[in-house]
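so my prof wants the structure for this chain in the tokens format not the other one, which i didnt know existed until like an hour ago. anyway here's the sequence
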Amino acid sequence: MYTSHEDIGYEFEDDPKDKKTLKPHPDIDGGWAWVIVLSSFFVHVLVMGSQMALGVLNVEWLEEFHQSRGLTAWVSSLSMGITLIVGPFIGLFINTCGCRWTAIIGGVVNALGWVLSAYAASVHYLFITFGVAAGFGSGMAYLPAVVMVGRYFQKRRALAQGLSTTGTGFGAFLITALLKYLCAEYGWRNAMFLQGAVSLNLCVCGALMRPLPSRKDRTDPTEKDPPGLPASSTESVKSSGHGGRAEEKDGASANEETLCDLQGQECKEQAQPGKNMCALRTLKTMSQLTLRVRKGFRDWYSGYFGTASLFTNRMFVAFIFWALFAYSSFVIAFIHLPEIVNLYNLAGQNDVFPLTSIIAIVHIFGKVILGIVADLPCISVWNVFLMANFTLVISIFILPLMHTYAGLAVVCALIGFSSGYFSLMPVVTEDLVGIKHLANAYGIIICANGISALLGPPFAGWIYDITQKYDFSFYMCGLLYMVGILFLLIQLCVRIIAQSREKYADGAHV
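here's what i got, hopefully its the right format
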């Protein structure tokens, strides 16, 4: 089930003695890998950055539709939640179509959701156009951006993920300012229309996600993908289960027989003038596409429910439990901070330098610094990850106690820096399941984060409607977050003890 770190980014070549040797891939940790980082960076700017700026639109929706804070907050939380919840299903798209085409299609769907939301007549209309449509498109663009960085980097994976995910901070800062300006000058409807046009750049980012070429692709340039298929087989996230491999062999032989039959029919048709060759070629292309879809679904299904199921890994299950509570505390700060500063009569100071911008800017440095520290050979990435989590949960508990702009600014800076651990999530996920299962596994993790993001802001809004305070919502979310951290920490200690016992037993036998 697990993939060795040393196997990532290397290919086997035959030496004169018929032994297999490892040759490093030229694009690993360099070359086109940095273009992938740049592409992923802009995906984070346009997807996650825009979602962190939804507090601006939330205020506009409250004034426009005159609904409760709890109901209105569902629009933002639906968009953020669905972006992450659809992760496991996006893994199926990646297995079938590849990262490049998944991201391109996601960019079109996301832009369409923003544009249609400009014509909203009610909050319930926004649930469909912005929450569901734009959220689903964001998810289709986001997961490939994370997976592609993991495929192109080996030694500097934490740093590469840190650099690419800094786009969230840059996006939150830039798009917050952009949406404020557009709403003030043109109204929120035109602002959403223009933001939809900007979101089409996700298609450009997706086009840059070139599949990592295999050795076969480099040595035999005349061999091409079947017509109508959007990616090479290296884009697939394959399962390592024995049953899955047996099915692949049987399916491959059946596929070859089908294609040979179709090619034989095509030769016969060429000998018979007047026959419709176009229809036969279309039939062959559709057959190849069907086989690709079936194989992608088989790989996806095996990763979740087959013999190589990720849920047999208890540490990974604990990680999912942590993810269920981790994201809501961070999200409610972004969504409700514009409202909180109004309640504390701090709007004048906040307009000079918004608190959400403080989080966004420090968040950038947090991701880069934590990524560099985690890549140091003498430091465990898990230690950095857990320390950042503890700092974030303490900041969430302290936030309701601050009623001055200076106090809130300090706490927001702590939240921004400690939340930089998001850049380490793909790294610790890969550490648990291996690079081959990264797409499926990370899809599950962001799905759990999506459930947290989906329920967090409405929960905070409902508590405010009852108590006229946001304090209790931060306390409750922080408490649940702490439970998730402790559960993860306990399971990590159990794994360390088990590994120590195995080493001791091996030493005793020696």
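also thought this was worth mentioning. The chain is about 75% helix and 0% strand.
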